[in-house]
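Something for you to look into today, if you have time. I want to see for myself how the chain folds. Leave the record below and I will have a look.
***
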Amino acid sequence: MELKPGMSALVTGGGSGIGKALCLAFAQKGLFVTIVDFSEQNGRETASLVQNENKKFHGDPKVPSAIFIKCDVTNAGSLSAAFRKHVDTYGGLDICINCAGIAIKTLVYDDKSDGISTWRHAVNVNLVAVVDGTRIASQIMRSGKKPGVIINIGSAAGLYPMNFDPIYSGTKAGVVMFTRSLAPLKRQGVRVNALCPEFVQTNMAEQLNHRIIDATGGYLKMEDIVNGTFELIKDESKAGACLWITKRRGMEYWPTPEEQRKYMINPPKSKRMLTQNNFPIIQTPEFYEKIVVHTLSHNFRNATRLDRVRLRLPVEPHSALVKIIYAGVNASDVNFSSGRYFSGTAKETAARLPFDAGFEAVGIVASVGDSVDHIKVGTPVALMTFGTYSEFAQVPAKHLLPVPRPDPEVVAMLTSGLTASIALEKAGQMTSGQVVLVTAAAGGTGQFAVQLAKLAGNKIVATCGGESKATLLSTLGVDRVINYRNEKIKDVLKKEFPRVHGRLVVIGMISQYQGEHGWKPQNYTGLCEKILAKSQTVHSLCYGDRSSGEWVAPGVAPGCQMVSEEWG
């Protein structure tokens, strides 16, 4: 998740220590912050600091850029009310930090009280309130259908024993295992992670014996805690992760992959669940067949022929030999066979002949070079490289993407999925809470665009031609399906979505690939003047040679953007 001005965060225990530091760090990114704390003095002081920091982002905001809510986090009703106040003020919740925590001075086995004001209270603050805060925050995020991140502040004491406060250590261990068990929430758009630092110079830590602090290398910098938190927020792959931070070793994820393997249970084997151990050793033949372009032509059949060639062995040191299982048939094959994917003159392009055809594939590693140690023989992999219309392909090992199974669905992800992802996130600058129109939505790239935009928390309008396609789109979560065989797209958009502003993304020119000469660039007379008059910009991205560029009307501040993306 990228932190942007206008997003909102709620921080329990935000009046002091780590919580306060995170509130100020969020303010420096322009986030609206709710500070939840039992200390009114500390909480209001933090809120004031956040508001001052936020002035450079929100000069005259319609809502306060920070609010303080006095709350006993062990009171479920009060905690729930604090979350409701945040949502009522800011309209949603992007980030929740469960940071409230306390230590106790009396060892639990020496405590002769009923524990209500000592160890039981610590359990309620350190663990029960974290569970409650996570529960409430995740419900808000899921109901808003927007991605969210929850960070539970644990402790290194939750990873290994802390003899001088077993209750603190035990509750933080509970936070760690509770958080790690919530990894599946990522499927619903909510990522929950734990941060487990050693000693930080806070009021609570300063009450400890300094010899203990010194033995661990001294206090961590608050900057380390902020950086670790931001890493867990920004890294979309982290869900149910535990980031351990120490003065001695820096940042590490706990447990290590080696430790994880000790307790992981192998899933039941089935025909659909293949691992590299399920595949027999692939025999490398002396000869193999591949499709090769011999003549530059838009007619792919005329441009190519099936060649039988000798397999080159041994494999180059940094490469791997892949047995191709499925190759993707791409509409741009005709552009490739006609030489449009190469820069230079026609003569220079012709000099490249013959060259191998095919763009993407999945297969199994049959052999590796001597310098390759991260990919093993028998590993299912995906690859995006020229020359995949072949029984075997030798490619640099660094370009291989390990996958669970060599399924044909993976091939669709490589081009159609990647196209939709980059078009929406990079060219279209899609965020959450927007309205996204996808035309030809039941097609290859369209299906991915619909699902990605929906997962990002947007309202989806999609067009298609036919009842079966409309039904498919409805099952994918489209909010408004326009079947142009029954309704006029223009009439629907004018009536239901009038006078909108935004970004236009054009993906490919597949409908123009047909014909004798294939796709030809068109001359859009007056386009520059139209862009200039509306203060628009045009961004372009060519997938063929992985290059991109931007054209901005001179002397005009970019306002609404028109994004044009033409991919092979």
